[in-house]
Amino acid sequence: MGRVVVWLAPRAGVGGAGGCGRRACPPPRFVAAAAAPGAQQQRGGAGPGGRQQRPRPGQHSRGGRGGRGEYAPPSPLHVRQRQQPQPQQRAPPPRDDYFYAQAATSFEDLGLGGAVSAALRGAGFARPSRVQELAAPPLLAGRDIVLAAETGSGKTVAYLAPLASLLLARRAAADAEAAAAAAAAAADPEGAPDARSAAIAAAIAESRRPVALVLVPNAALASQVLAAAESLRGADGAPLLRAAAVSSRSPPPFDRPDLVVTTPGALAALLRDGVGYGYLWTPEGLALAVAHVVVDEADLLLTGSYERDLNNILELFKVAERRAMEDAAADQLHVSPDAIRALGRIQKMALWEGGVRGLLAAGWRRAGGARGSEQLPDGVPDAAAALRKQYAFVAATMPAFSKEDAGSELARRYKAAAWIAGDLLHQSKPALSHEWVDVTGDAEWAGALLRAVTGDEDWAAGRARVLVFARDVGSANAVSDLFRSRGVPHHLYHKAVPEDKRQAALAAMAAAAGGGADGADGGGSTDSGGGGSVVVVSTDAAARGIDLPCVTHVVQADFATNAVDFLHRIGRTARADRGGRVTSLVSPEAAALAGAIRAYIEEGRPVEGAFSRNRSFSRKVKRYGEFVPRGQAGPGADAPRGGGGGGESGGERDGGGGESGSDSPGP
């Protein structure tokens, strides 16, 4: 039996991916089956006739043996309305080998090039993961993707390996073209260009080589992605790709790289002031050079302080791409660029989405020509379509409850993208054990925290790698003070810690995973107390994306403020196919949220119903006497309410009410 996607989304078939329109559309649990790797789907997930084909609410479409996979994007909820009770659905237990690919036994099976496949094996990857198996076919086909998969599932390699294959293929084609030109010149010495002309031709060819851009939230994750790219090496030991990390401390290279890793803020600053580094690092130069864009930790980068810079970058690329496609179409159709730019909106959209063939299918013809008389012969490359950029949005969590959430925004902007989900998206992994400890007061909290860390059997054996999460810098410092007073060696990792000490914390964890241990802050050497054990005390700065090797135990000194942060925290352990444990200290203030998440985990279900801010849990508990997830009716929800004007009932009459609308926009 295939695994099932469980996604909270508005009713299928009402409003489409862009929204619900004027009709109210309560969000049932959306269920879709996995698509077979490499399966061809029409753009936008359309079925026969171009209409959206989605399972009806409550309908389970069955796929192959494995699980989630490609699925239809969520439709954002645009109106608040009273929620109807929804049937409880329990996901079937995952396969024992859920981490690994189901059908592909080698990287060549995914369609990756031989050099990249060999480099992956040389880097220590014996076989592809399930996420890599799902992501490779659409990426290699040039499709945009939204990849949402559990932490530690291999997402970085899932996009790096296909991009490396595409970039190397383009490089090989350019080299072959240059070799053919050189051979022709050698055969005709009189027509051979001089050295200066040859150098100019080589420079032009180099300037046309595509660049892949990876955007990440912080420098630590940028360094990690860069290291992953540089670990892919050829038979000569050199990296397959020329990769560069760009930041305020690391200026861009003068030589054109294949892969650029940076943050939205650093790239925005570079595009303002980077003209001194060459044309590539100007807005026009980069927009023309970049062919592939990856947004890692997409749900984070599409919100908050990252949002403006990211949107400006994406808008820059979109405008440049459309202008280049218009120019290419004009050239291929032998008309003026002004004639293309004078087209109506419908035909322009057809060109932007489908290239010259899309424009012709939309009815374009020359003045005086008959409709349908224009066509591009089969086998003739579409010059405009070849200029479309490829986008990949990657995340471990993808909320899609309101139109402001990342999933809803991506569904609106990238309607043709392939949506891919990991088997355990928004779930706790089966190899992860949980302990929930209720604490009241500082003394009880301190005792429970010390017992959680030093009572670990791995601690006594000197092999514990413990990551302790605190809610903010002040709380992390308080945990550090407690550990220091009790002789618990540890490292601190948060924004107020100097960069060198933050790097030392990551290095200590890596060294412990490799069998060694570095000195620790606040408690002397790691040889005291826990022997070779390592403890890192962190804010949520270490919760997203950073691959801390072999963390054995995650301790929540302060419970996460929302379910999304909870998933990212617990995702630091039990990565790949390893096990791990989580100890959560639960204060009275966090009890409602912790209880809801715990119930989902113990029932083996995704925690999407808890994707709301912590304050909404207290409001629900106060209203119903218990937590009621989104899409579910609380006790007595259908009973008549007194008072006709204000409070809860007034809100429900005005827009539909419930907890799934704009009052709980997600984290």
Tell me briefly what this model is.
The chain has helices at 114-122, 130-140, 155-187, 195-207, 219-230, 264-273, 283-289, 298-301, 307-333, 337-341, 345-361, 406-413, 442-454, 457-460, 473-485, 499-513, 563-570, 591-602, 614-624, 647-655, and strands at 5-8, 29-32, 69-71, 145-148, 211-215, 243-246, 259-262, 290-296, 390-395, 418-421, 432-438, 465-469, 491-493, 534-538, 553-556, 580-586. With 667 residues, the protein is an alpha/beta fold.
Rg from Cα: 27 Å
Instruction: Please state the oligomeric state of the protein chains shown.
Output: single chain
CATH architecture of the domain at 107-183 and 194-366 and 381-421: 3-Layer(aba) Sandwich
Shape: elongated
Any idea of the CATH class of the domain at 107-183 and 194-366 and 381-421? Alpha Beta
Overall structural class, as computed from helix and strand content, comes to alpha/beta
Structure notes:
InterPro entries: DEAD/DEAH_box_helicase_dom, DEAD_box_RNA_helicase, Helicase_ATP-bd, Helicase_C-like, P-loop_NTPase, RNA_helicase_DEAD_Q_motif. Residues 105-133 form the DEAD-box RNA helicase Q domain. Residues 30-43, 629-640 have a biased composition (Low complexity). By secondary structure, this protein is of the alpha/beta class. Among the domains are: 107-183 and 194-366 and 381-421, 3-Layer(aba) Sandwich (Rossmann fold); 432-512 and 532-624, Rossmann fold (3-Layer(aba) Sandwich), CATH 3.40.50. The protein is built from 20 helices and 16 strands. The strands form 3 sheets. Strands 3-10-4-9-8-5-7-6 form an 8-stranded mixed beta sheet. It has a 6-stranded parallel beta sheet with strand order 11-16-15-12-14-13, with helices on both faces. A two-stranded antiparallel ribbon has the order 1-2. β13 (491-493), α16 and β14 (534-538) form a beta-alpha-beta unit. α1 (114-122) packs across α3. It starts with a strand and ends in a 12-residue tail after the last helix. The relative contact order is 0.11. Residues 1-66, 76-93, 521-530 and 627-667 have low confidence and may be disordered.
